[in-house]
Amino acid sequence: MTGQPPGFDRHMLEALVCPQTQTTLSYDAARQELISKAAGLAFPIRDGIPIMLVDEARVLD
Predict the structure, then answer these.
(1) Per-residue confidence band for 27, with pLDDT thresholds at 50, 70 and 90
(2) Nearest to residue 6, comparing CAs of 38, 35, 45?
(3) Rounded distance, CA 5 to CA 19, Å?
(4) CA 42 from centroid of its chain's CA atoms
(5) Which CA distances in Å does 34 have to 1, 6, 38, 61?
(6) Distance of CA 20 to the CA centre of its chain
(7) What per-residue confidence (pLDDT) applies to 6?
(8) Which pTM value belongs to this model?
(9) What is the pLDDT of residue 26?
(10) Where along the chain do its domains lie?
(11) 8 falls in which pLDDT band (50, 70, 90)?
């Protein structure tokens, strides 16, 4: 074991959409976030699990 959190399964990205706009998401591996350009939000990925709650999302700059 490396001590690092489990990574995000990119195949899951095909099944996920933005909860606000229902549009596709892109994966930011460096920040461990799913990006919704349409909504201007970044949804965090914690321990390999995407947190798809608008209240938990970061507003994009």
Answers:
(1) very high
(2) 45
(3) 25
(4) 6
(5) 26, 16, 12, 15
(6) 13
(7) 59
(8) 0.84
(9) 94
(10) 10-59
(11) confident
- Residue (of 55, 8, 16) closest to 24 by Cα position: 16
Rg of the Cα atoms in the chain: 11
Residue type, 22: Q
Q: If one looks up domain 10-59 in CATH, what number appears?
A: 2.20.25.10
DSSP collapsed to 3 states, 1-61: CCCCCCCCCHHHHCCCCCCCCCCCCEEECCCCEEEECCCCEEEEEECCEECCCHHHCEECC
Q: What is the dihedral of CA 49, 52, 55, 60, to 10 degrees?
A: 90
